[in-house]
Amino acid sequence: MSVTVEWKGLAKSYGAHSALTHVNGTIAGNKIIGLLGRNGSGKTTLLALIKGLLRPTSGQLLINGQAPFENRALAREICFVRDSRMTYGSFKVREALKLASASWPNWDHGYALHLAERFSLPLEKKVQSLSLGMESSLNAIIGLASRAPLTLMDETYNGMDAPSRYLFYEELLEDYMRSPRMLVLSTHLIEEVGRLFEEVVLVDQGTIVLHETTEQLLMMTYVVIGTAPDVERFTDSLQVLHTQVLGNMKSAVVFGELSKEQERLADLYHLDIQPVPLQDIIVHLTSRKEVPSS
Amino acid sequence: MISMNAGPIYSQIAQRIKDDIVSGKLHEEEQVMSTNQYASFYQINPATTAKGFEQLEEEGILYMKPGIGMFVSRNARDKVLAERRQQFFAKIVDPMIEEAYKIGMPLKEIIARLEQQEGAKDS
């Protein structure tokens, strides 16, 4: 089963507070997708809506043509992991994994136990007494071993130390290649995990502001550095995300593909053109600070 | 290594394979690792690796043996060398001349240095 998630004018409010508005777009296929955005931008609400935990206030959310809210058949195809402590609190880790295995038709128990060993997760310990990092490891294990056609992971790295996070990324990639499926990961650790994303979806102020392949995003953003007047001349009609001035030098982050003509101009003005790291692109795209573009 | 700070990852992958062909780590008619093996090794998305392979296939550096995998083309090394030679002046020599001009380095000294290096290699 290959998954297509479609949003059509989706909105979700909690009382007077609007969490999501005008969400439109489609994600489709067996891909690792990064769900990025600042705290409070609406990522978790979006994931909860996909899982069918929330009813949309207006608009539509369709998964392979069906609405997920109160849809039991669809629920078994979608694994949304967070808060193991709340779900399995008084059970031992071993029992929690057994319980999880009953929820997911594609569950691989051998793999779950293998992961528990790799993450050094104590099987006989109660879930509620796990440290935050251990709980995140358990979340990660459930998400991976579920082998659900659509797996949603919401910041599944809280409290994990760096070796555990890299172990998680490694397992995620290996298991994705073994069992291709749609994996949506919300994260702030773009520098660490960005290279695993085939596509990124950027949520800002309650709506999807960008959906692009990671490679395309890297290609369509660059920084131009030179003397201020030259940089300004160069960026005159371009979309500038961010500028910085140091003495008479200026740097400008430009959003838009660099054309051959622009390359020629940059050369003419003695401007230096550099790539921009994914993490910085996301920061610039979601920064509240209005920077004059020239 | 592959860097998130150095532009599109697929072109870094393509560049790396070309480097390996130039240095002789990869021979003509030799099978290259699969996209999944590359993805695993560099911890990157396999679709990205596939895009890098696609570019090399278009350039005639790699070719596909159906059901087996990707191989280095027969004259891949010559092709990459020709490309590198073509870029040599623009990428290496011209910036050097610009720098020399900036810091007032006489052309004579540069030529002397080149000849000295060439001599050291010959002997």
TrEMBL record, chain A:
Q: Which Gene3D superfamilies match?
A: P-loop containing nucleotide triphosphate hydrolases
Matching entries from PANTHER family are given as: ABC TRANSPORTER, ATP-BINDING PROTEIN (PTHR43158:SF5), SKFA PEPTIDE EXPORT ATP-BINDING PROTEIN SKFE (PTHR43158)
GO MF, one term, reads: ATP hydrolysis activity
Q: Which UniProt keywords apply?
A: ATP-binding, Nucleotide-binding
The answer to whether UniProt assigns keyword Nucleotide-binding to this entry is yes
**Protein name, per record:** ABC-2 type transport system ATP-binding protein
Please indicate which superkingdom the organism of origin belongs to.
Answer: Bacteria
Q: What is the lineage of its organism?
A: Bacteria, Bacillati, Bacillota, Bacilli, Bacillales
Native organism: Paenibacillus phyllosphaerae
Which is an annotated Pfam family here?
ABC_tran
Q: Which residues form the ABC transporter domain?
A: 5-230
InterPro entries the record matches? AAA+_ATPase, ABC_transporter-like_ATP-bd, P-loop_NTPase
From TrEMBL, chain B:
Q: Which organism is it from?
A: Paenibacillus phyllosphaerae
| Domain HTH gntR-type residues, every copy | 7-75
Q: Which SUPFAM superfamilies match?
A: Winged helix' DNA-binding domain
What is the protein name stated in its UniProt record?
DNA-binding transcriptional regulator YhcF (GntR family)
Which segments does the entry list as coiled coil? none
| Alphabetically ordered keywords of this record | DNA-binding, Transcription, Transcription regulation
The organism that produces this protein has a lineage beginning with: Bacteria, Bacillati, Bacillota, Bacilli, Bacillales
Q: Does the keyword Iron-sulfur apply?
A: no
Q: Which GO terms describe its molecular function?
A: DNA binding; DNA-binding transcription factor activity
Q: Which domain of life is it from?
A: Bacteria
Endpoints of the signal sequence: none
